[in-house]
């Protein structure tokens, strides 16, 4: 019910009906104004629906992108990434341009790769980095996609926001920041593993002699 009440088309209908009632209160219209108000609501509703789409009580597909950070980290992150990938592949209403969808899919793959690397790694992420890794998959990426898709497509691609960019360009910037952070986390783990390998190599060299271990 709330979705219908909060829909732009419904507000257009209510504004049209309210305008008629205001004219009646001012004495410009007679007793037939109530019927005209109902007609005004209908006209406003149709006009708003043609521009923004018909109101609905059905949950939009992207609104399912809410995941809880609980239990095993691997499972929680995996569930969230699967949800993002399914939605991107389904692409309701073709709201996500092909190039943008490809970037989202690649980021999911990179996050899954980070999970695999994390499990194999001999190194450790700091508490802050661990927090970032979990939340990029469970909340940051899903919520960014959810918020972006809640904006009407024409508005998202044409209207400038307070930052001087469209919503689509802003979302692309968010993806770039997440991509950079995922790469940094992967490099951190790889650097720790490389250092561990170097220490082990030096240990073997000292133990068996430089002639045996190059």
TrEMBL record:
Protein's recorded name: 5-bromo-4-chloroindolyl phosphate hydrolase
Transmembrane segment boundaries: 7-26, 32-54
Top-rank taxon, per record: Bacteria
Keywords recorded for this protein, A-Z: Membrane, Transmembrane, Transmembrane helix
């Amino acid at each position: 019910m709330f979705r219908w009440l909060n829909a732009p088309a419904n507000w257009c209908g209510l504004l049209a009906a309210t305008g008629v009632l205001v004219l009646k209160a001012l004495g410009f219209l007679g007793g037939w104004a109530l019927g005209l108000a109902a007609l005004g609501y209908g006209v406003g509703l149709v006009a708003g629906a043609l521009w923004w789409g018909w109101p609905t009580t059905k949950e939009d597909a992207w609104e399912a992108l809410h995941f809880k950070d609980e239990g095993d980290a691997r499972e929680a992150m995996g569930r969230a990434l699967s949800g993002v990938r399914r939605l991107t592949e389904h692409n309701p209403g073709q709201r996500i341009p092909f190039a943008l969808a490809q970037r989202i899919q690649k980021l999911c793959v990179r996050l899954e790769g980070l999970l695999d690397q994390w499990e194999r790694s001999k190194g450790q992420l700091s508490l802050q980095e661990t927090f970032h890794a979990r939340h990029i998959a469970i909340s940051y990426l899903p919520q960014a996609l959810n918020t972006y898709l809640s904006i009407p497509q024409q508005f998202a691609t044409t209207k400038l926001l307070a930052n001087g960019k469209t919503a689509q360009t802003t979302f692309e910037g968010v993806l770039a920041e997440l991509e950079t952070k995922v790469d940094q986390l992967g490099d951190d783990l790889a650097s720790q593993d490389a250092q561990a390998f170097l220490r082990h190599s030096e240990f073997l060299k000292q133990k068996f002699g430089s002639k045996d271990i190059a």
